[in-house]
Amino acid sequence: MDASWEEYGWERLGNVTGRRRLPVWDATAALVAGTEGALLYDTGSTLREGAELRNRAEGLLGRRVTHIALSHPHFDHVLGTAAFAGAEVYGAVGTKELLGRCAEELRADAVRHGMPEHDATVATDVLVAPRHEVSGEWTLGLGGGLQVLLANVGPGHSGHDLAVLVPGSPSVVLCGDLVEESGEPQAGPDAVPARWPAALDRLLSLGGEDALYVPGHGAVVDAAFVRAQRDRLAVRFGVS
């Protein structure tokens, strides 16, 4: 990997991790680069965004993305997956079944949020559901001694929240929409408010005090931010 992360539009977060804040919905996609494999966390809201992420990842690495982890099954995080032919796709348990039966609901939600109907239809027509489902934790080797941890930490923001821990100095925790920085966390009809604070406790136990926490929307934050958001959610939803 001779090029710099920034040269290909990635915000570098550590030796092996970078992320992009995508336009329109400010959703994050993150790339974790081992010597043999590469993991992309979320794939964007359209096939066009997915293809751009693929090109920027391949330009940086000189090889393809081999693994994809989907943080949760909302349109702005999963509709670009079909751009990554051959990648092994992971999600929290239940994501496969949900995406298999709810493509039309996903398409309608995307259009309701302002996506052009053509883009939403094209993406949901080739919607890719995870082949691998994580019920607890799943350690994934990417080569060069790099092992990332996929953790089913939900439900919370959705019924199927998957986080990723990338070890290092500092460690990086990819949070999905369990954490949001650019606005208040959104609780849609599939949120499980009573368990959301516990999901954030789990994130904090994964990363610890010194980790970088990457929200689904917004700037990278620290443990204190996640803890404060956890406490606000507990008050908001009347849970401890």
Written overview of the protein:
The structure is a single chain. The protein is α/β, with parallel strands linked by helices. It has 7 helices and 12 strands. It has helices spanning 47-61, 75-78, 95-101, 103-112, 117-125, 196-207, 223-237, and strands spanning 11-12, 17-21, 28-33, 38-41, 67-69, 88-92, 132-134, 137-143, 146-152, 162-166, 172-180, 212-217. A 7-stranded mixed beta sheet has the order 1-2-3-4-5-6-7, covered by helices on one side. It has a 5-stranded mixed beta sheet with strand order 8-9-10-11-12, with helices on one face. Strand 3 (28-33) and strand 4 form a beta hairpin. The longest helix has 15 residues, at 47-61. It is globular and about 45 Å long.
Count helical runs. Answer: 7
Helix content: 25-40%
Question: What is the residue-mean pLDDT, rounded to a whole number?
Answer: 97
SSE arrangement, N to C:
EEEEHEHEHHHEEEEEHEH
**Which outline best applies?**
globular
Q: From the helix content, strand content and strand pairing, which structural class follows?
A: alpha/beta
Measured between the Cα atoms of the first and last residue, the distance is 46 Å
Question: Which regions contain 5 or more consecutive residues with pLDDT less than 50?
Answer: none
For the sheet with most strands, the description reads:
7 strands, mixed
Strand order of the largest sheet: 1-2-3-4-5-6-7
Query: Per DSSP, what share of the residues sits in E-state strands of 2 or more residues?
Result: 25-35%
Kindly state the number of beta strands: 12
Give me the Rg, rounded.
Answer: 16 Å
